[in-house]
Design a protein that fits this description.
Blueprint (H helix, E strand, L loop, with lengths): L1 H35 L4 H24 L7 H29 L4 H24 L3
């Protein structure tokens, strides 16, 4: 039991570092594109989604969850489904906070990310990289 808790603790720290990089990138990129280029909430979210699939997936797979032997296409498919749902809900929350409630983008995105990040860890830990 002690080893299992240590393993989860280490995964949570790695997820927080890598996820923190992703969240910070999401927050800055979204706010920058929304404020400077006046892009729609949808396109700001879509641009970050591509970043997540190409940069964050390998980092989470090989560093956080240390899944070297499992088939990458199987986990990538689950990661793709997981992050499609994540982006959908993140987009809906961003749309609510920024476009409907008129929070400034950096504040609205903060609330969206604060709600979505714990769910992302749980879904990756217990579904995408389960094992």
């Amino acid at each position: 039991m002690k080893f299992y808790l240590h393993k989860i603790h280490k995964q949570l720290i790695n997820f927080s570092l890598i996820g923190g990089f992703g969240v910070l990138s999401n927050w800055i990129l979204f706010s920058y594109l929304k404020e400077i280029y006046q892009l729609s909430t949808f396109f700001c979210s879509l641009i970050f989604y591509i970043f997540v699939l190409t940069v964050i997936f390998p980092m989470q797979k090989f560093i956080t969850f240390k899944k070297r032997k499992s088939p990458i296409n199987y986990e990538f498919n689950k990661f793709f489904i997981n992050h499609t749902a994540y982006i959908f809900f993140d987009f809906c929350l961003s749309f609510l906070f920024v476009d409907q409630l008129h929070f400034i983008p950096i504040v609205g995105k903060f609330f969206s990310l604060a709600l979505m990040t714990p769910l992302s860890f749980l879904s990756q830990k217990y579904w995408v990289f389960k094992g």
